[in-house]
TrEMBL record:
It is an enzyme of class 2 (transferase). Its EC number is 2.7.11.1. This is non-specific serine/threonine protein kinase. Residues 1-27, 375-396 are annotated as: Disordered. Belongs to the protein kinase superfamily. The keyword Acyltransferase does not apply. InterPro entries: CK1_Ser-Thr_kinase, Kinase-like_dom_sf, Prot_kinase_dom, Protein_kinase_ATP_BS, Ser/Thr_kinase_AS. It comes from the Eukaryota. It comes from Oryzias sinensis. Residues 7-17 have a biased composition (Basic residues). Keywords: ATP-binding, Kinase, Nucleotide-binding, Serine/threonine-protein kinase, Transferase. Residues 37-326 form the Protein kinase domain.
C-alpha cells in the first residue's frame, strides 16, 4: 500500500497499541543470557514503549552518564522483529569488533546489541532490548547549520556510511532508510556517527541467496519519500544499490539544502518519476550552479546507477570517488567532524510553503514513526517464513511496523 505521504514524506503510523507502564528507577531486568540490567530515568517515549538509561546491575543507582539504553514495551505488542532480527544477527559486539579488525577500520557506526528478554511486573509481561546509548541526531545538527553542511563534512559522512553499509550488506541486510535523523553522534565522542533505526532493515540474501527483482504495486514508495530508492518507489524489495542511491540523495541535500522534488512530497509518483527521469548530471544541475557542482557526487551517483539489482557494489571505487573530492579541497579525513555552515554549495532556492507539523524535542524520535504500512508487515511475515521469528520468550507477530525507537540519549 503506498504511504500516505505527508509534507515530510513519511508514511502512516501503525494502529494504536497498549502503552508500556513506566518503571521506577532501580528496576532490574534479566536478559535471556541471565545478565541483569538496572533501569535509570526514562529518556524517551513513543506510541507504545519507553526508553530508559541503563547500566549493568550493581548497588549503585544508574547515573546520567549511563552507557546503555533499554527499550521496554508490552510483550503483546509483538516482537521488535526487524530490528531485533538485525541486531541479534549482525550487531553483537564481538562480530563488530572482528569486522573492524579485519577491515582495519578504527570505528564502525553500528550500535552494539547487548541483550534482550522478557520482564514480568504486576502480572504483565514486557519485552526489552539493550543497545549502546547515543547522542544527538544529524537532522538537528543540519537544521542548526542552516540546512547546509560543509563539503568536507559531507564527504566524511559519506565515507563513514560506506563503511557501515558495507558491513550491513556483508551480513545479508540492507538498511533502506538512511537519512540525517537516523544518524546519531556518539554520546561520548562527537566525531563518531552511528546509523540507527533498523525498522526497515531487510535481509536481501538469506543464506547467501539473493532475492529476485519483482515489482509489487502494493509495496510502492516504502521508506522516506524524498530519499527512498527508485526500486522502493516501484515496490521492489530493498537491495544494496538502493542503500547507496539513498545515500547519494542525502549527500546532495546536505550540500545544497533541499532536493528538487521536496515541494511535491505528497505526490510520491511525481517524486518517483523525477528520480527516474533525470540522469545524474541533469539532477546535479537542478541542485547546483555549474561552478559549485561537486563532481565527485555526480561520479558517485553514476557509479551507483550502473549497478544491477543483484550486483555487489564496488565499495572501494566509491570510497576513492569521495576521497578524490576531499583531495580537490586539499583536505583529508582527519577524523574531526566540523559542523559549520557553508561548504561551497550553491544557495538553495526557497522551499515552497509546506503543511505545518508538530515540533518534537528530538527529530529521531519522530522519524522512527515514519515508515509503517502493510508492505513492512508482509516483509516481516516473509522473513519469518524464511528464517523463523527471532523472539525473546515468544510473543505475537508484527502488525504494521514494530518500532524500536530512541529519544535523544544525552
Amino acid at each position: 500500500m503506498p504511504p500516505k505521504a505527508k509534507a515530510t514524506g513519511r508514511a502512516r503510523a501503525p494502529a494504536k497499541r497498549k502503552l508500556a507502564e513506566e518503571f521506577p528507577p532501580g528496576e532490574v531486568l534479566t536478559d535471556t543470557g541471565k545478565k541483569s540490567w538496572k533501569l535509570g530515568a526514562p529518556v524517551g517515549q513513543g506510541g507504545f514503549g519507553l526508553i530508559y538509561l541503563a547500566d549493568q546491575n550493581s548497588d549503585k543507582p544508574v547515573g546520567k552518564e549511563a552507557p546503555y539504553v533499554i527499550k521496554v514495551e508490552p510483550s503483546e505488542n509483538g516482537p521488535l522483529f526487524s530490528e531485533l532480527h538485525f541486531y541479534m544477527r549482525a550487531a553483537k559486539p564481538d562480530l563488530i569488533q572482528t569486522w573492524m579488525k579485519t577491515q582495519k577500520v578504527k570505528h564502525l557506526g553500528v550500535p552494539r546489541y547487548w541483550g534482550s528478554g522478557l520482564h514480568e511486573k504486576g502480572g504483565k509481561r514486557y519485552r526489552f532490548m539493550v543497545i549502546d546509548r547515543l547522542g544527538t541526531d544529524l537532522q538537528k545538527k543540519f537544521e542548526e547549520c542552516g540546512k547546509r553542511f560543509p563539503r568536507k563534512l559531507v564527504l566524511q559522512l559519506g565515507l563513514r556510511l560506506l563503511d557501515i553499509l558495507e558491513f550491513i550488506h556483508e551480513h545479508e541486510y540492507v538498511h533502506a532508510d538512511v537519512k540525517a535523523s537516523n544518524l546519531m553522534l556518539s554520546h561520548s565522542d562527537p566525531n563518531q556517527v552511528y546509523l540507527v533505526d533498523y525498522g526497515l532493515a531487510y535481509r536481501y540474501a538469506p543464506d547467501g541467496v539473493l532475492k529476485e527483482y519483482k515489482e509489487d504495486p502494493k509495496k510502492c514508495h516504502d521508506g522516506t519519500i524524498e530519499f527512498t530508492s527508485i526500486d522502493a518507489h516501484k515496490g521492489v524489495a530493498p537491495c544494496r544499490r538502493g542503500d547507496l542511491e539513498i545515500l547519494s540523495y542525502c549527500m546532495v541535500q546536505w550540500l545544497c539544502g533541499r532536493l528538487p522534488w521536496e515541494d511535491k512530497l505528497q505526490d510520491p509518483v511525481y517524486v518517483r518519476d523525477s528520480k527516474i527521469r533525470w540522469s545524474a548530471g541533469a539532477f546535479m544541475s537542478k541542485c547546483f550552479s555549474s561552478q559549485d557542482k561537486p563532481d565527485e557526487i555526480q561520479r558517485f551517483m553514476e557509479e551507483v546507477k550502473s549497478l544491477g539489482y543483484k550486483d555487489k557494489p564496488r565499495y572501494e571505487t566509491l570510497r576513492s570517488v569521495l576521497q578524490s573530492g576531499l583531495k580537490s579541497l586539499q583536505q583529508k579525513d582527519d577524523g574531526q567532524l566540523e559542523f559549520t555552515a557553508g561548504g561551497g554549495a550553491a544557495p538553495a532556492p526557497a522551499p515552497a510553503k509546506r503543511a505545518s507539523a508538530p515540533i518534537f524535542v528530538c527529530n529521531y524520535l519522530t522519524n522512527l514513526f515514519s515508515s509503517a504500512g502493510a508492505a513492512q508487515t508482509e516483509r516481516r511475515k516473509q522473513e519469518q517464513r524464511e528464517d523463523g521469528a527471532v523472539t525473546q520468550g515468544g510473543g505475537g507477530g508484527a502488525k504494521g511496523r514494530d518500532f524500536f525507537w530512541v529519544s535523544c540519549w544525552f
